[in-house]
Amino acid sequence: MKWSKLLVPTIKEVPNDAEVPSHQLMLRAGLIRKLASGTYIYLPMGFRTIRKITEIVRQEMDAAGGQEVLMPSVQPMELWAQTGRNVDYGETLGHFTDRHGRENVLSPTAEEVATFIACHEIKSYKQLPINLYQISFKFRDEFRPRFGVLRSREFTMKDAYSFHASEECLHETYMDMYNAYCKIFQLAGVEYVIVEAETGEMGGSGSHQFTVPCETGEDVIVYTEDSKYACNIEKAPVDAVAKAEPIADAPAIEEIRTPSVGSIETVCEFLKAKPQELIKTLIYKTVDDEVIAVLVRGDNEMNPEKVTQLLNGKGCELANEETIEKVTSAKVGFAGPIGLAEKVAKVFIDHSVAAMAIAITGANKSGYHVKNVVPGRDFALEGDNVVVADIRNAVEGDTFEGKKLLFKRGIEVGQVFKLGAKYSKKMGANFLDENGKQYPCLMGCYGIGINRIMASAIENGHDENGIIWPISIAPFEVIITPVNHNDEEVMQVANDLYNELKEVGVDVIFDDRPARGGVKFKDADLIGIPIRVTVGGRGLKEGKLEVKMRREAESENVDLDEVGLRVCQMVEQLYKEITGE
Ligand code: ATP
Ligand code: MG
């Protein structure tokens, strides 16, 4: 490919609305452009990388027995109502009404459609197992699209769905997918860790997440100090903290006026107290409209996934102002646990709250808090609708099974799930076994974010001059940079090398633009082509060309007639480092 024929609009300045390096560099290198919040256009250089990642994914999915299909991205809402996910997915589900008044979903994932296929096409155990996958656009109306393509509203996902007659068979395919994912991330040249994960809106019995460790990642990975256990913070279990020594003759509760003070920080400031001396009382509403209360210590974060587990998989979200005021008889910010159990369907109390000797809480009265609250004395720690459990996020200092917990940030690039019969039962995807008995198919699903692989490769592969791609997903493997486009000999040598490399199958770009050498070097570094050959200058007069790897500071001077061979060796070496072969 000749640069002069390509649309590569590079930018010198760092765009000020891009917070993370991958977003900044994808814009600066002319890989993407923003169309609207959370939607991006892939320009030619960017799309070459997308295609390369897609090809790696397709190759490994085919090798693992997947069959490629393509499902519609506009799906009938009725299908989603069959599984209840029209509600569970919440506001993230994009939808529209068509001209005939029919409601449609913009596919954020495709379990329902995959199960629809199983319903209609699978009759007998003889047709199982089957593993169908697609690579297509997904739409999620993310609350806060950010970090460029890392959390966008429209993105490319590889999603796969497998169906089985037995738990063992599901496990086998689950492990095949798990291993295929390892191979995919290895071949794409990104470092990854695998952690146990929550199943979220997908549901089901087991899940692993593939995460690229990186400072800017939105996910938090929690692992024990011996590294024997690792999981997403959404799932990370913590040991109950030791119960504080009870205070002998603890004083009775006392109301204190805290006018117009609401948040934990402001209450602490006003009362000269520490967050860990407070109890945070949160009012939530489940998907079937039950109001529940959740108590965590002032310095802890409530973990919605853990609460969802306790609600047998039912999702919940913060109740609105009206509900909170009704339940607590006070304005938002003054909720407290005293007398609350009678007013809500359930009270979930974190272990660390139950372990407190004495605490400050909201008074269920606008403008007031109460101090000297003793858990167990002033509000119940047991009862029909009271549950003490692990419902908070792990924090520094926590242990699990006695082992210290450590934390690392990362980007989730893929996730695999064992869904079991959840979707099959609801939609009636059954098969007949050898004895003619009917059972629901067991199901697994497996997703990879193609765009996130691209962005996470940049997050971990860049320097102050630009991107440093793994060769397998770089837009081009090699760039030829003639320094003086007016010099006929220079252009001839560059063009000959370009043809030679193209002929042997090297993915090469020839920077034939009538621009200064310095500009071309800067652009080549910004876009991050792994190997650069410079043609011109003193070297050429001595019959040598300069060959340089993007990641190295040093270059090599290679005899003109050996350059082609040397470049091929380098390309091979870079691939070998990735495959480890
Ligand atoms: P997250 O927790 O980050 O919102 P998720 O767990 O909801 O993601 P899955 O339903 O597991 O995502 O989707 C499979 C894959 O699709 C993810 O592992 C991720 O790589 C990709 N993905 C999900 N949401 C987005 C998004 N908004 N933008 C880009 N890629 C995404
Ligand atoms: Mg996920």
The poorly predicted ranges are none
Number of domains: 3
Number of DSSP helical runs: 16
Radius of gyration: 29 Å
Set out the fold topology.
Blueprint: H1 21-28, E1 32-36, E2 39-42, H2 44-63, E3 67-68, E4 74-76, H3 77-83, H4 85-88, E5 94-97, E6 103-106, H5 111-121, E7 130-139, E8 154-164, H6 167-187, E9 193-196, E10 206-213, E11 219-224, E12 230-232, E13 254-257, H7 264-271, E14 279-286, E15 291-297, H8 304-310, E16 316-318, H9 321-328, E17 346-350, H10 351-354, E18 359-362, E19 368-373, E20 386-389, E21 399-400, E22 403-420, H11 422-427, E23 430-432, E24 438-440, E25 442-449, H12 450-459, E26 462-463, E27 466-467, E28 478-482, H13 488-503, E29 508-510, H14 517-527, E30 531-535, H15 537-541, E31 544-549, E32 555-559, H16 563-579
Parallel strand pairs: 3-7, 15-17, 17-20, 28-29, 28-30
Antiparallel strand pairs: 1-2, 4-6, 5-6, 7-8, 8-25, 9-10, 10-22, 11-12, 11-22, 13-19, 14-15, 14-16, 18-19, 21-22, 22-25, 23-24, 26-27, 30-31, 31-32
The structure holds adenosine-5'-triphosphate and magnesium ion (MG).
